[in-house]
Design brief:
The protein has 193 residues and is mainly alpha-helical. It has one domain. The chain has seven helices and five strands. About 6% of the residues have low confidence.
Length: 193
């Protein structure tokens, strides 16, 4: 499948732009500047549209290839603001939810069960098991200023999570040396590197 059919720019330019935006704490204008320094003149609004399109698409491909990684969720209380409101997005129901021992989480989880959510999900409260998730909030919250609507936040966050998931998997497997966002996106899309 050609994911880049009809695009004005070559696939490598799109992959680099989307990869840089999703992997690093850069604004669309900063990615535009990086590309301009390499002789590619592309508007920041075009990069925005690419992130919206490919962030969601890449996440869907990645999620299909990594289904078993969604067996257990490690959760912590957090939120991001979108026009001043909390964002709650539910994916497929996990088998296990691991949280810290915060009473607010236990209470919220019980309420969700009362309303018919997470009926087949086991809730485990282990004090230090979710310490890694405590650190995971930072990249999303750092970009909080960029979210103007749920429609734009969702594909961006999905794309960021996909890139971070690939990065973490490579780190666990000891193959982090030479990590390239562009190469990983090409592999995901089935494009020869």
């Amino acid at each position: 499948m050609n994911h880049f059919k009809g695009k004005q720019f070559q696939q490598d330019v799109i992959i680099v732009a989307v990869g840089y935006y999703l992997r690093y704490n850069l604004s669309y204008r900063e990615v535009q500047e990086i590309l301009y320094d390499r002789g590619i003149n592309v508007s920041h609004t075009t990069i925005y549209r690419w992130v919206q399109e490919y962030g969601k698409r890449l996440y869907q491909i990645w999620k299909k290839k990594n289904k078993k990684s969604f067996y257990s969720w490690k959760m912590d209380e957090t939120y991001i603001k979108i026009k001043g409101k909390r964002l709650v997005k539910q994916f497929d129901e996990p088998k296990v939810v691991v949280t810290d021992k915060a009473p607010s989480i236990t209470s919220a989880f019980k309420k969700l069960k009362e309303y018919g959510f997470y009926q087949g999900t086991e809730h485990r409260t282990i004090k230090y098991l979710n310490n890694l998730i405590e650190q995971d909030h930072r990249p999303v919250k750092r970009r909080n200023k960029f979210y103007r609507s749920l429609r734009t936040a969702s594909p961006t966050i999905k794309g960021m999570e996909m890139i971070r998931g690939i990065y973490k998997k490579n780190r666990r497997n000891g193959t982090l040396f030479g990590f390239s966002v562009s190469t990983e996106i090409k592999v995901l899309l089935g494009i020869p590197a």
